[in-house]
Amino acid sequence: MSTAPLGSVRGDLAARAAALDAADPLAEHRAAFVRTDGVVAYLDGNSLGRPLLATRDRLADFVGGAWGDRLIRSWDEGWMDAPTELGDLIARVCLGAAPGQTVVADSTTVLLYKLVRAAVDGRAADGRCEVVVDTDNFPTDRYVVEGIAAERGLTLRWITPDAGGAVTVDQVRDAVSERTALVLLSHVDYRSGRIADLPAITRVAHDVGALALWDLSHSAGSVELSLDEHQVDLAVGCTYKYLNGGPGAPAFAYLAARHHGRLPQPVQGWMGAADPFAMGPGYQPAAGIRQLISGTPPIVGMLPMRDMLALVERAGMPALRRKSMALTGFAIEVADALLAPYDVRVASPRDPAARGSHVMLEHPDFRAVTAALWERGVIPDFRPPHGLRVGLSPLSTSFAEVAAGLGQVADLLTPR
Ligand SMILES: *Cc1c(COP(=O)(O)O)cnc(C)c1O
User: Fold this and answer.
1) What is the rounded distance in angstroms from the CA atom of residue 25 to the CA atom of residue 31?
2) What is the pTM of this model?
3) What is the DSSP pairing of strand 234-237 with strand 251-255?
4) What's the CATH code of the domain at 387?
5) 147 and 285 inside one domain
């Protein structure tokens, strides 16, 4: 418990925030985002990234140009290739993956379904009938894999993470066997923000001949990744979180080149066929990553993420990651100084290398506090049972926003 008067603690934190913002090499990029007066602190960029100013023009130009002027000719002038062209861009900027292995399509949920089915069906011939998953994964991941287990008669091996939210390498080693078809995990945990040991867990899966599928929804654009180097087999992720693709923007899927042609996905559609416009009698899959496409690509939804990917590439993932660790570190510093006196608990790792770009704080009153914060223009999100999740998108968030936002959290808590 701090003995200094609260006013001077807050003054010190505000001064520290100002100094950190002044020294931030990425600070200039904040001006690239749409800002409105009503928002005091946006602490939910991990759930829905802010739009970029450039996106306004891009959307207007699209209506007058590629769509309004070029009309259906645009399918031949770039739209048909957009899923793989944009996939390659995400791969280069965020995933540490060579071209030809990433596609943009569908939603994360649907791509996850397609990839899990592809993986387990591809391994079924070897008599592999188990999937390793964890009980704390994001609901959609658990629901999708439960559905597929029922559909295909698979057994799920559930790992229960420790109290800190980690799925450890040892837990995975204990859960896998020669019966395992697939290990499905999130890289950055959506609640605790804890980063799983992707290289070691992928190796453990491979040691028993299983495949590893990583959900990168909270990693893409916030944490550096090297999917090729670490021999990841499959991956999916969102583009509306740290890639600022806008609400409902399509997802991305990665399938390592060594698996192309060997793991057929289940939603066979004309756009993933070898020659969509032959309109022939039977399905012949396209070669390479295009086979993951099912129907007509969501071109409109792919527009905004291009602006963020360009900005992320300009800033560079290493610099972005440094700022992310500084922001989450500062959030924990503010929580220790202002919120610990109210018995708020930091539920994310204190080691910056072990966490993604959000910090989970816990307190029994946080459901009501979050609702009150939103009315004041301070926007984190609430995750049951009593977590206040502070998401800090590195290119659009200032240290001052963190101090101001968490200051209002303290205002709304009553001493216990
Ligand atoms: C946000 C998130 C999703 C979202 O899936 P949608 O199909 O886009 O709704 C999936 N998995 C994880 C781990 C997430 O954090």
Assistant:
1) 13
2) 0.97
3) antiparallel
4) 3.90.1150.10
5) yes
Structure tokens belonging to residue 145: 């894999």
In the structure, what pLDDT confidence band is assigned to residue 3 with cuts at 50, 70 and 90? low
Pocket test for ligand 1, best of 48, 108, 223 (most atoms within 8 A of CB): 108
pLDDT tens track for 285-311: 999 999 999 999 999 999 999 999 999
Using alpha carbons only, give the angle 141, 44, 416 rounded to the nearest 5 degrees.
Answer: 100
Domain of residue 48 covers: 3-52+316-413
Q: Which residue bears the tokens 């290119």?
A: 395
Nearest CA to ligand 1 atom 4: 108
Instruction: Single out the residue in 261, 279, 313 at which a domain terminates.
Output: 313
User: Which positions are catalytic?
Assistant: 138, 215, 240-241, 389
Q: What's the 219 CA to ligand 1 centre distance in angstroms?
A: 12
Q: What percent of the chain has pLDDT over 90?
A: 94
**Distance of CA 183 from the midpoint of ligand 1 (Å):** 17
> Number of folded domains in the chain?
2
Phi/psi at 263 (nearest 5 deg)?
-125, 75
Cβ atoms of 322 and 25 within 8 Å: the answer is no
Does the Cβ of 140 fall within 6 Å of ligand 1? Answer: yes
Q: Does one domain contain both 107 and 189?
A: yes
CATH number at residue 240: 3.40.640.10
**Nearest one of 154, 152, 105 to 133, comparing CA atoms:** 154
